[in-house]
Design goal:
This protein is of the alpha/beta class. The protein contains four helices and five strands. Helix 2 (36-56) runs parallel beside helix 3 (75-94).
Length: 146
């Protein structure tokens, strides 16, 4: 099972993911949500994909925008990013006996696209980590993080 649910700002991932990645799912939530309904729709999709991945025992990667980790773009985008992090950690915890792998990768606007694709491809190809947030942005450097 290979399932790519990308949004407008992450369509490039479909072209750059390594061809060796044949299993797993990537769900992106990097576009700014317009209202609470769009957040709800994306979360329903995220939970559906998580269920499929745990049933099929394949890795899952959620992709969010780095600025949303700090609520810097909008409250809605921050809420969505936080919920996806919680979903990934819940999957990792609740399905650890099934060797479930669910992680979150946060991308900045100026992301090195081939590098990001390698990171995401690595999480799908060799799911040794789970429940982790990998922030590829540098905006947090030198700042106190909660």
């Amino acid at each position: 099972m290979k399932n790519l649910l990308l949004d407008d700002s992450t369509t490039w991932l479909g072209e750059l993911l390594p061809e060796t990645v044949t299993d797993g799912a990537v769900l992106a939530a990097c576009d700014l949500p317009s209202d609470w309904r769009s957040v709800e729709d994306r979360l329903v999709e995220a939970f559906r994909v998580a269920g499929e991945c745990t049933t099929e025992q394949v890795p899952l990667v959620y992709v969010v925008h780095s600025a949303d980790l700090r609520g810097a773009r909008s409250a809605l985008a921050g809420a969505l990013a936080g919920a996806l992090i919680s979903c990934a950690r819940a999957v990792a915890f609740e399905f650890s006996r099934r060797s479930a792998s669910a992680n979150v990768v946060a991308l900045p606007d100026d992301v090195d696209r081939p590098g990001a694709a390698r990171v995401i491809g690595g999480l799908l190809a060799d799911p040794v980590m789970t429940g982790e947030l990998i922030d590829l942005g540098s905006a947090k450097l030198g700042r106190l993080q909660p």
